[in-house]
Design goal:
Elements lengths: L1 H7 L1 H20 L8 H37 L16 H54 L4 H26 L9 E5 H11 L1 H7 L2 E5 L4 E5 H17 L6 E8 L5 E6 L20 H4 L9 H11 L3 E7 L3 E7 L3 H8 L2
Parallel strand pairs: 2-4
Antiparallel strand pairs: 1-3, 4-5, 5-7, 6-7
Length: 342
């Protein structure tokens, strides 16, 4: 704080030094002041200037300290920030305080407006999704009742793609409020994986994709609904980028530390090394995504964000032309409690 104050007042210090040089020059050349002690005058002036700087230091930095304390307080008590702004002692400090109050009031009004707009948009999106689900369910019943197996499979595949996009949008909308929309419980991986494979059955049959499941009887502590969504994104990616008549391997392992890891391994086109660091970025499709118009660049982004909020670490190993392995590392009970208490 002292160095910052001296840097701020360097114009004062420079002016004092020039003034002292000028005074010493006059006292030396003018014989009228030959009996005056130049050392005494310099000492008195320097002492008075130091006393003046010390007084101004405590007077001016007191206002800055109050602002710093207010900033730390505002991290936990935002509503009390406005009323706690110091009035200031000088006209400049009072002007700064007044400007801050006006800016905060204006920002608060704009923020409230954005919150209201976001809440309305959030409600509109959820309402639209639930409205679309009704005709989508009716379409599924109509498709199931068709007598032509060939047409039924084609329509069911298109229905599944619409359903996945709609589900992705629903979870995208709910992601910011995931803390209010989860229920932590002990979940068996096998149950969720089987359910999600069944959801993608039409797509897998169309491409001739098979699954090799191994050691999925592990239990993890997580939210079942959001974990299903994460696995759904990994499986749909594996199916999308796998060759026809390929096989997807899903298995789990356990580290020495006790962490359970779920692996989803495909034998598809893989991911280039240049794209690997960015595959979890929003709307990033990369070289692989450009090979298909079905890629939106949102699935892995949403899966990554949902996983982080649940304390799950998601990572990938891939080689172009060989395939990809996406892995989910689940937290231990004590780690999850630490995440939940943040």
């Amino acid at each position: 704080m002292l160095l910052l104050f001296l840097k701020e007042k360097k114009a004062w210090i420079l002016f004092f030094i020039i003034l002292q040089i000028w005074l010493n020059f006059i006292l030396t050349l003018d014989i009228t002041f030959s009996h005056v002690s130049i050392r005494y005058i310099n000492s008195v002036n320097i002492l008075l200037f130091i006393v003046f700087l010390t007084w101004r230091f405590f007077a001016e930095t007191n206002y800055l300290r109050k602002l710093n304390d207010l900033q730390r307080q505002a991290e936990n008590e935002v509503d009390s920030f406005l009323s706690a702004i110091p009035d200031g002692n000088s006209p400049f400090e009072r002007l700064i305080s007044k400007s801050m109050e006006e800016m905060i009031l204006k920002s608060r009004e704009e923020l409230n407006g954005v919150r209201v707009e976001f809440s309305e948009e959030y409600d509109r999106t959820l309402t639209w999704i639930h409205e679309v689900k009704t005709p989508l369910t009716a379409m599924k019943l109509m498709i199931d009742s068709l007598d032509n197996p060939s047409s039924q499979k084609k329509l069911e595949l298109q229905w599944l793609r619409i359903h996945l996009l709609l589900d992705q949008q629903l979870h995208h909308t709910r992601l910011p409020a995931i803390e209010r929309d989860n229920m932590i419980e002990s979940v068996v991986l096998q149950k969720i994986v089987h359910k999600e494979i069944k959801e993608l059955q039409a797509w897998c049959l169309e491409k001739g994709i098979g699954f090799d499941l191994d050691n999925l009887n592990k239990e993890v502590l997580t939210d079942q609904k959001w974990l299903s969504f994460i696995i759904r994104q990994l499986l749909s990616n594996a199916v999308k980028y796998s060759m026809e008549n390929a096989e997807i391997h899903i298995f789990s392992s356990k580290e020495e530390t006790g962490h359970v890891i779920l692996h989803v391994k495909d034998e598809g086109i893989g991911i280039s090394q240049a794209d690997l660091p960015r595959i979890f970025d929003k709307s990033f499709t990369g070289l692989t995504g450009r090979l298909t118009t079905a890629s939106t660049g949102m699935g892995l982004y949403l899966a990554k964000n949902a996983a982080e909020k649940l304390g799950i670490v998601i990572f990938v190993q891939s080689e172009q032309g060989v395939g990809s392995t996406f892995s989910l590392r689940f937290p231990l009970k004590n780690e999850f409690l630490q995440i939940s208490s943040r």
